[in-house]
Design a protein that fits this description.
Length: 292
């Protein structure tokens, strides 16, 4: 079995845990977002993870994956490529066989717990044999977003410390607990209600076993990000938070601006928001913490 302590995703998140800061995990759908990640990371001297959904391979074969992997490998600061919310054995094995992903989220949360655990164990072992770090979601985070299957009528289930231990026993490297976070919109900051006492109990049982990561950050403010990091989150996944200014610009300028100018400005707008987030989670200036 490969030594996963040398895996770049593992090293990035361990350094964050040891240093008491968070690392952005940026969901990317296009060239602009991928390039913005590298520019922001190098500008802020920050580690960063690029997150792709299985949609990326469905849409663009391995081409978008290859681009993202090349950006991570060629950056002057620590960056890694993570497959987020891989919700089928086929998607996980397809991605793993590219040799491009440093970590994969084995998301079997749409199954009942026992089947979730069984499938997760099998797929974690498969990934580990290839040197790929893994993540899983105990409980169930409600909602959906572009590229992620909506839980639909399935009830969101908050993670308990006991469940956290059951999932840690599958061999995962990263744990994504459900503590009141949701995929997609909260429809107002006032509706963001995170159970930090629950997270503290999970953190106590997970200590020195896995790193804890945060999903469902749409509409988070800088203060909420800081609170999550203080509570022990090492990677904080972002989607709409870093895309909102780009999306507004696209709505106003698409088809009315030369393509090169549109791409350059779009990249700048995403980079600007990623840099804002790096300041919020404390990763700015911490690239040197990750031992290469």
């Amino acid at each position: 079995m490969p030594d996963l302590s040398q895996n770049i995703s593992v090293r990035i998140l361990k350094a964050a845990a040891d240093g008491g800061y968070g690392v952005p995990g940026v969901v990317c759908y296009n060239l602009e977002a991928i390039i913005a990640c590298r520019r922001a990371a190098e500008s802020k001297n920050s580690p960063c993870q690029i997150l792709l959904f299985p949609w990326a391979q469905d849409y663009a074969y391995d081409n978008l994956v290859n681009l993202a992997a090349d950006v991570c490998r060629s950056a002057s600061v620590p960056m890694s490529l993570h497959l987020d919310h891989a919700q089928s054995e086929q998607a996980i094995k397809r991605a793993a066989h590219t040799g491009k992903f440093d970590s994969i989220m084995v998301d079997m949360s749409h199954y009942e717990k026992e089947e979730n655990l069984s499938r997760t164990t099998e797929l974690v072992n498969f990934c580990h044999k290839l040197g790929i770090a893994t993540e899983a979601e105990p409980g169930r985070i409600n909602g959906g977003e572009a590229g992620v299957q909506d839980t639909g009528d399935l009830e969101g289930i908050l993670t308990t410390p006991e469940e956290a231990l059951q999932f840690i026993a599958t061999g995962i490297d990263f744990l994504a607990p459900a503590i009141g976070n949701v995929h997609g919109p909260y429809h107002g900051v006032e509706n963001i209600k995170l159970d930090f006492p629950r997270l503290q109990r999970i953190r106590e049982v997970a200590k020195d076993k896995v790193q804890i990561v945060m999903h469902g950050t749409n509409e988070f403010t800088a203060d909420i990000f800081k609170e999550c990091v203080k509570a022990g989150m090492t990677r904080l996944n972002v989607n709409q938070v870093v895309l909102l200014n780009y999306e507004k610009y696209a709505a106003e300028k698409a088809g009315r601006t030369p393509a090169t100018e549109f791409m350059e400005e779009g990249t700048r707008l995403i980079q600007e928001r990623i840099e804002w987030m790096m300041d919020a989670v404390g990763s700015t200036g911490r690239a040197g913490d990750v031992k290469i």
